[in-house]
C-alpha cells in the first residue's frame, strides 16, 4: 500500500525551520507511540538500540544511524531492553517562511496518539529536487556519518537562545539537510563498497579499544593501505582514523550513560588516564563528559 508523497521542490529554495531538538535517553522497554506528529522528525541514535516502526517498515536502528518520518505517518519508537537507546530528537519543517521554532506546548498539542492497529498503515514519503541530479528520495532509515557534530551545534544553539538564534538554527539545519541529500546522491554503490571493508568494520566494532593502524585494517581486507583508505572513505564518508575515533566516542557515550561515575566509564572505555579521557572527549564532541551526562531530555 502506498502512502502520500510530498515533492518538496528545489532544495536550494527551501526555508527549513527547527521546531525542537533534545537528547533523549530511554529506559529499557520505554515506548513512544503509536503516534503521528504535526511536523517532520529525525531520530539519530547515539548509543544503544531503537526498534522503530514507520508505517509498514520496522527496523532496529543502531548508533550512527537515523530514522526520518513526517506528518501523518504513524510511528512507534521502542528503547530495547538489552541496550536502552539514547538519541537526538529533531523536530523540524522542510519549508516554512518563519525561522522561529514552534513552542513546546504547540508541538505537544499537535501529537496525535493512535491505536496499534493504525501503526502499519502507509507512511508519508518525501523527495527534493537537485538541479543536475533530478529528484532525490529521502529514505526512512539510513546511516548518517558526520551528523552528530551538527546535531550538537543545533542543540547548543537551541538551548542558549541567544539573539538571532532562530536565524542560526535555520543555517545549521540547512547544512544538515544538504548533507543528508548529498549522502543519498552518493549512496548508489554504498552497499557494495561496505562489503569490501566488512572485516575492518567488524574488527573496529568488536575491539573499539584497539588503536588500529590503517595498514592492519587494509591487510584484513586484502588491500594495500592507499586503496583501502579510498574505499573506506567512499563507503563511510570518513577516513579510517576518524571512523575509529567516532566509534570509540560512541562507546564512551554509552558507558557514560550506564556508569555512575566518569572514572568507571573512562576505565571501561580503555583509558588509563581520566584527564586524557576528558580532554579527548571534549576535543571530539565539544562537551565535557559531565556536560554530556546532564544533557538528557525526553520527547
UniProtKB/TrEMBL annotation:
PROSITE patterns: HTH_ARAC_FAMILY_1, HTH_ARAC_FAMILY_2. It comes from the Bacteria. GO terms for molecular function: DNA-binding transcription factor activity; sequence-specific DNA binding. The keyword Ribosomal protein does not apply. InterPro entries: AraC-bd, HTH_AraC, HTH_AraC-typ_CS. Pfam families: AraC_binding (PF02311), HTH_18 (PF12833). Residues 198-295 form the HTH araC/xylS-type domain. Signal peptide: none annotated. Keywords: DNA-binding, Transcription, Transcription regulation. PANTHER family: ARAC-FAMILY TRANSCRIPTIONAL REGULATOR (PTHR43280), RCS-SPECIFIC HTH-TYPE TRANSCRIPTIONAL ACTIVATOR RCLR (PTHR43280:SF11). This is HTH araC/xylS-type domain-containing protein. It comes from Paenibacillus solanacearum.
